[in-house]
Structures are given as C-alpha cells and as structure tokens.
Amino acid sequence: MSWKTAAISLVLSCSAMADATSTQALGAAGIDPTATRLNYMLNCQGCHAADGRGLNDIPAMADFVGNFLSVDGGRAYLVQVPGSANSPLSDQDLANVLNWILLTMSAAQLPQPFTLYSAEEVAGFRQQPLADAAATRARLLAKFTDG
Fold it and tell me: Which CATH number characterizes residue 31's domain?
C-alpha cells in the first residue's frame, strides 16, 4: 500500500468515526439525524452548501461555526442571523438543525462541555433578531483574536 492510499484510508476512517460519534451524540439527545439533515438541506444548504463551506459571500460553517459558542454573544448570534431567525422551522426543529450543524460540521471547535440548543432557548433568541448580522459577526470574530 502506498503512503497516499494509507493517508486516504486514515482520513476516511477518521471521518467515519467522527460521523459515528456525531450520530451517537444526536441520538442521545433525541435528535433524528435523517429528518434534521433534510431540514438543513431544505432551509440552509442553498446558501451554506451541503458540506457547510458557504457559497459566494455566505460564511462557511464547516470546521469553524463551533467557535462562536466560545465567545460572549456567539450562541445567540447563531440563532439570530436572518437565515435562522426567519426560517419557517419550529423552534425545536431549528434547535435540532443548529445542534446537527455543530455536531457534524464543527465538533472539534465546540467548547467542552457542549450544551445543546433547546427549543426554549431558540425561541428567546429569535425574539431578538439582529439589525446588522455582518457587523455582529465582525464584532464576534474580533473577540476570537482579542481573547
């Protein structure tokens, strides 16, 4: 086996382990990963892509979005951005989608311990939509380098 084949096998096995860990975490929280992925596909994927990389000027979530939970205001921000706050999803379905995104796309960046979003938390944050999501994002990103 060549070193390239070995490297690819290692990456695939790590991805499979990460997927299994995420699926277990979602299942333990009572979140149906299939239904939640479908909600992501129908409500988020058009702007953030299937893998969370972001399209055009839409920010990437993959391997990054979990960082927001480590700064003051970041947890609220993920609910208050227009795509979340204005989505047709119920508060519970939005909480599930946010938890799915965090656990499947950015698990390595999550603070420990990680607290799942609840429907009640989402409902509270949704009542305080952002006036300027880009400015809020810039302020939060600055906290990453300040802290």
Answer: 1.10.760.10
